[in-house]
Amino acid sequence: MFDLRRVPIAKVPADEAGPVICRLMDLGRVDVHAKISRDREFRYVPILPDFVDEVRSMGYEVGEGDAHTLDRRSPQERIAHALSHIPELEGSLPDRWEFVGDIVILKLDASCERYLDEIGEAYAKVLGARTVCADVHGVSGEFRRPSMRVIHGSETESVRLENGIRYRFDVTKVMFASGNTDERMRMRRLDCAGETVVDMFAGIGYFTLPLAKFSGARRVFACEKNPESYHYLVRNVRDNGVGDVVLPMLGDNRSIPGSNFADRILMGYVQTTSEFIPVALRMIREGGTIHYHDTFYVGEQERKVDEFFGPLCEYEVLGIREVKSFAPSVSHYVADIRIVSRSPRRR
Ligand SMILES: C[S@@+](CC[C@H](N)C(=O)[O-])C[C@H]1O[C@@H](n2cnc3c(N)ncnc32)[C@H](O)[C@@H]1O
């Protein structure tokens, strides 16, 4: 079953393989008739001859190798086949998953509980993953801690590459909201030339990093209360080369000193965000902008923003956008709010 054609093969480091291969696939650069192979450190991706220079210019070594013919079944079909000896799993295997570098995250239902080892092994083998984790209950608590079970492998730290940013984190310790990609992209596109920015809920640098790297901000104070997230924030600031712009701060954002100094404030937290508005209003300069995140019933977002900000300051809503659906009839929104005056408007 071997096709002994010689084809160009790009060498992609394993820890960034997931998103890079998806991107190359999306761009139509991969020879889909040949097979991707792997070893511990690299994935060997067959590239169409016309795109060799382009892939090299993306920073990947391209050599030559044998094109092994591709198993034409989808990964879902191959996973189902690998587990077909367990009839109880029929119909309950997830056909979607998330990659963080070479770690795969699955949502499993209760019927899978007895077969976690077999499931982990099958997904790892078919998807070429080093580790497979099951997302048990989503995120919870003040630190938005994930609840993950490692069902194959042991390495739980990896790097997610997104829009020119490297996010390193441990998937069992720190959340990553893949649904917030557009908002992270928006932070990258803001024009913050010369601004002082405060990220009150910095996490591992979700918004801080794209903003610091691309928006022209002069200074970003990135505050994070969870020491585990802070550890990755510091590392990611260094790895993304923004140490001269970002000052990571470990602690509660209510303890950030100073008033009237921020041109822009990011409030990337939901559900209890309104409790922190007085802190943001202490720090923001008049004329500055707050990116206020919260969850609202769909259709109530404008009224709720007015309910929260109206009694505290004079403001102008520059825009409100839906970040993602959160629950039935409830969405996560971000409101861009320009603070006109830090005193309440007369009603
Ligand atoms: C996980 S992020 C929210 C999601 C993120 N904005 C995104 O786009 O994926 C929120 C972070 O705020 C941190 N946090 C919660 N309360 C805080 C506080 N009072 N001061 C500083 N950080 C806080 C949590 O530890 C968490 O890391």
Order of helices and strands: EHEEHEHEEHEEEEHEHEHEEHEHEE
Largest sheet, described in full?
7 strands, mixed
Count helical runs.
9
CATH class of the largest domain: Alpha Beta
**Count the strands?**
17
Write the CATH fold name of the largest domain: Rossmann fold
Unreliable spans are none
Percent range for β-strand residues:
35-45%
Q: What distance separates the N and C termini?
A: 78 Å
Class derived from helix and strand content: alpha/beta
Number of domains: 3
> Rough shape?
globular
Whole-angstrom Rg = 23 Å
Q: Give the proportion of residues in helices.
A: 10-25%
Any ligands, ions or cofactors bound here, and which? S-adenosylmethionine
| CATH arch. level architecture of the largest domain | 3-Layer(aba) Sandwich
Spatial strand sequence of the major β-sheet: 13-12-11-14-15-17-16
Mean pLDDT: 93
For CATH, the homologous superfamily of the largest domain is named as Vaccinia Virus protein VP39
